[in-house]
Amino acid sequence: MEWFLIFVSVAVVWLASLCKILHSSFYPHQSSFLNNNNNAGSIQKKNVLFVIAHPDDESMFFSPTINHLTSRGHNIHILCMSTGNADGIGDVRKEELYKASVILKVPLQQVTTIDHPDFQDGFGKVWNSSKLSKILEKKILAHAIDMIITFDNYGVSGHCNHRDVHQGVQRFTLDTSEQDIEAWELVSSNIVRKYSGPIDIWLSFWTLKGEMHCLVNEHPLRSYAAMSQHLSQWVWFRKLFVSFSSYTYVNTLRKINK
User: Fold this and answer.
1) Could you list the residue ranges that cross the membrane (predicted)?
2) In whole angstroms, what is the distance from residue 89 CA to residue 67 CA?
3) Which of 182, 242, 249, 257 is least crowded, fewest Cβ atoms below 10 Å from its Cβ?
């Protein structure tokens, strides 16, 4: 009987949290993140670069932030540091990234995938942070990027490529003289929170401190649809991940200090 009551309680909180998120689709949450108004009262549009490691990172982990920014008219760019060629299907996964980007309303000309021998998908080889920083610098100068968003030092899942991307971005922030470019990292959560689904929106707001922002996904179905474009990766456990992962419903961003 106790287990049944616990299950019912969790189910009620889950549904209430999901309703809160769906409500935000009609009444968007007024976050102060990139919401600085100019003298005319309109939002200043920014060029924001997401730096990821593999095709599907954008849909599995960063879609709440991407949806938040595109719905407010900001220009989104994606720099994917590998084709995800660990299983020899890098060309397929590259095309899947483009298809997912269409769903996420990111223009294809603003999506770049790197296929470099020093940045290959997999374990056992460290991606050179200095080389990654130089690639990042060229991208930023070419597109007048105002802000970078990437993984934190743990990289959500602990994947070495995710962590190396963070190191490369951090290297860039230390090397650059461009003081106006901000860098933000996606905060990794513990395993309980990671699989708490929409319930984590309450914990995310409660744990905010310092230079952090919590962005609720205003279009969770769009995120699911975007991930489904990665057909080569769309196996049963990733379907479960997208359904139950808190990263489908909310992103907590923390500023990377120079």
Assistant:
1) none
2) 28
3) 257
